[in-house]
Amino acid sequence: MNLKSVFKGIVSSVLVFGLIAGTSIIPAFAESMTESSSKDYAAESGSYSGTEFQAAYRLKKSNGAKVNFWIKNTGKVSVEISINGGQKRTLAPGKSGHISAPVGFLSSNYKFKAAPTPNGGKISISYRIAQKD
């Protein structure tokens, strides 16, 4: 196990704890956390069950030109996903898919949301947020 793996494990643990505790965590993704084979510069993944998933990250274009938000809907209601309230997609139960957004030259916060639609309820998802070239 190398230092990079240990650091990724610590970051993932802090983010998961933040989701469980209901706190807002906005990490600055380090350029040193690169995956040379996939050019996947900043990534977070996990699962969530509840009324609404929200995450916010400060992204820089130097870490990748776009960011993807992928989910698999493992629940019983349709889920609408969005990035910064703009790009939107609805996924039926059992379906998976993603949306993308360009990352600007200046650092800025990107907000990722998954919510039940059209009549509310509880969602269950597996998700991955990744910034890429």
Please, how many helices? 1
Strand order, main sheet: write it out: 1-8-3-6
Approximately how much helix is present in the residues? Answer: 10-25%
Mean pLDDT: 78
Shape: elongated
Strand content: over 45%
Which H/E pattern describes the elements?
Answer: HEEEEEEEE
Structural class: mainly beta
Please tell me how large the radius of gyration is: 15 Å
Main beta-sheet annotation: 4 strands, antiparallel
Gap between N and C termini:
27 Å
Pick out the low-confidence regions. 13-39
Q: Give the strand tally.
A: 8
Protein architecture, described:
- The model is unreliable at 13-39 (pLDDT under 50).
- Helices cover 14% and strands 48% of the residues.
- By secondary structure, the protein is mainly beta.
- It has one helix at residues 3-21, and strands at 40-50, 53-59, 66-73, 78-83, 87-91, 96-102, 108-117, 123-132.
- A four-stranded antiparallel beta sheet has the order 1-8-3-6, covered by helices on one side.
- The chain is elongated, with a radius of gyration of 15 Å.
- It is built from one helix and eight strands; from the N terminus they run αββββββββ.
- The longest helix has 19 residues, at 3-21.
